[in-house]
Amino acid sequence: MTPSMTPSTPPWPRLQRVDWPALEQHLDENGHAVIAGLLDTSECAGLTALYTESDRFRSRVVMARHGFGRGEYQYFAYPLPTLVDTLRRNLYPRLVPIANRWQARLGKERRFPAEHSAYLAQCHDHGQCRPTPLLLRYRPGDYNCLHQDLYGDNWFPLQVAVLLSAPGKQFEGGEFVLTEQRPRRQSRAMVPPLRQGDALVFAVNQRPVAGQRGDYRVTLRHGVSELRRGERYTLGLIFHDAA
Ligand SMILES: O=C(O)CCC(=O)C(=O)O
Ligand SMILES: [Fe+2]
């Protein structure tokens, strides 16, 4: 454990400062919402520095080999770095009420338990045992095709990505892009402005939208536009484990 991996303040008080009702409303209306400044610069640098510590990771994916884009990412192995584990365990209970409300509106039966440990036990019972938190690295010319991070039948409907690099300073281009596909309509693209340390909460698969005849589903995908300069790192926090 490097010293920079110790959170400078415990994440719990940090998350208490978040305006959750506003975040929830933005999520309901757009399928994504930003938690500004969740990590500080030194925490971002500490996580970025882990990228070269190969024994922290269970696998490395070179995106071009799979047609996923260009660039690469690595999935952390268990045990997760303390800060990654703390973020995942503390963000989850805040997102559960939103996730369960969406499940009901989407007509889905599954409800998620209040604690992340209980949810992981469920994933493990389903044979989804492999950790999904990841670090992504982009260099000039790299990009990430629009995709969804499902990894099995049991998936938690919200995920979080934290931008670890400083736009305009450490990199240019490389915008986080979301698309929202509405039934029988054209897709809407969204590019939330992100600064270093900002966390984006977004829908993994679908979100409910109130229509004239009840709720309907819209499908979301996310990706990253081409990086023009520098190096860009992201921490991805997915709450379900993978098959
Ligand atoms: O690099 C990014 O911002 C996208 C990360 C991503 O695809 C994810 O966290 O699931
Ligand atoms: Fe992703």
TrEMBL record:
Superkingdom classification of source: Bacteria
Segments forming domain Fe2OG dioxygenase: 129-242
Pfam families for this protein: Oxygenase-NA (PF09859)
Hydrolase found in the keyword field: no
UniProt entry keywords in alphabetical sequence: Iron, Metal-binding, Oxidoreductase
Family: Belongs to the iron/ascorbate-dependent oxidoreductase family.
Protein's UniProt name: Fe2OG dioxygenase domain-containing protein
High-level lineage: Bacteria, Pseudomonadati, Pseudomonadota, Gammaproteobacteria, Oceanospirillales
